[in-house]
Amino acid sequence: MAMYDELVWKRRSVWETLSEDEKSKVMEFADEYRKFLSTHKTEREVVEFAVEQAKSAGFNEIQDGGDKLIIVNRNKAVAVVKLGRKPVREGVRIVAAHIDVPRIDVKQNPLYEDNQSATALFDLHYYGGIKKYQWVARPLAIHGVVVKTDGRVVKINIGDNPDDPVFTIEDLLPHLAHKAQYGKKIDDAVPGEKLDLIVASIPIPENENVKERIKLNVLKLLNDRFGIAEEDFMSAELEVVPAGPARDVGLDSSMIGGYGHDDRICAYTALRAVIEAGEPEWTAVALLFDKEEIGSDGNTGAQSRFAEHVIAQLLDVQNDLDYRNLMTALQKSQAISADVTAAVDPMWKEVHDLKNAAVLGHGLPIMKYTGRGGKYSANDAHAEFVAEIRRIFNENGVIWQPAGLGKVDEGGGGTVAKFLAKYGMDVIDAGPALLSMHSPFEIASKADLWMAYKAYKAFFESK
Length: 463
Hints:
A hairpin with a 5-residue loop joins strand 11 (about 245-250) and strand 12 (about 255-260). The protein has helices at about 1-5, 20-40, 45-55, 175-180, 215-225, 260-275, 305-315, 325-330, 385-395, 415-420, 445-460, and strands at about 60, 70-75, 75-80, 90-100, 105-115, 120-125, 140-145, 155-160, 195-200, 235-240, 245-250, 255-260, 285-290, 335, 340, 365, 370, 400, 410-415, 425-430, 435, 440-445. It has a 9-stranded mixed β-sheet with strand order 1-2-3-13-4-14-20-16-18, with helices on both faces. A 6-stranded antiparallel β-sheet has the order 8-7-10-5-6-9. The mean pLDDT is about 95. The longest helix has 20 residues, at about 20-40. The chain is globular and about 80 Å long. The chain has 11 helices and 22 strands. The protein folds into 2 domains: about 1-100 and about 260-460, Aminopeptidase; about 105-240, Roll (Aminopeptidase i, Domain 2), CATH 2.30.250.10. It is an alpha/beta fold and about 475 residues long.
């Protein structure tokens, strides 16, 4: 038995390792996270939350100086930084997550009236990898902003207040679906152009001499409440998201179900970790990106060189900015790409490599590589860095487990890791495992949430 214990690695349930005191901390931490997840459903809302939380903990916008700093990129990406004892040119410690989530966006010219069904609708375009059939016949909310030509930003949030109406994308009744849906491939049963949002059905009074009276009534309601007109949709970012709060799942309340765990569970834990970490040896950076779900493109995604911009600004704070120091700092840095992975699905175990798949509630998954097929489009972490991560986690009581995103030929996916690795830094993927990933109701373990927080905090505090 002694030889077995010494030589054999054993997967462990987090719940069986926790003291009663730590279990209470897990539940308290999860309650706070669940409230965050319930109310912050867009990138802008998450950035606002991050800035508010950091400022309340004594962080300043970078132009205001200090050793605890906030750098915001267009209100859709943010870095929260705690300067370390070592100069930035010797490298930093980054935990990078993304704050965009698969959703359905309102198009630029969305509002139209369908006379035959006597409804007004918004024309939509889905964002990221969704299963379209999961978004029909369910209550939906609209979150986002409308920007007026004078620069005023009008915030929109309809459907999550208990007094608000909700919206929906209707589905075809089974009595009439035999030819239109049954027998089709699952991806074709609900075409993208039929994902339109029902927004109203009451026409404006007939004394208005217009043909589209329901549409005009919608515009009047929006103008009365928000002061916007139809042209303002052209400069809007409106996201259709599931309505309602995240909820505890299971008789034991051991899980959280809700919209946006991927990847706000990592964003939240990274933010808490950098705020609550002690004085670090290396500068600690929680780096929250946009656009990961559509390839990390755009000027707020991981391919925008925002990471490089952050390091450059930190070097400038230390009066140490030149090109060589910037490149050296990036190359010497270490990063955790904090993104979720797939938990073993009890109904679909055949898609997993069970020896290397993450199990819900068994600690923070570590993925040496992501990608698909023959590790295509992956960052493949070096063994030396994996060993260092193991050491940090083991020394700090972090329960972790190996993970992979399905069988080799089953599919796969990527993260922001490869975009950080291009600077020469060491990067590894580590984020909680989920069930029903990319659905409107993803499931995460409270135990894994807690271990993610402990892991990221230990990484920031490592020597």
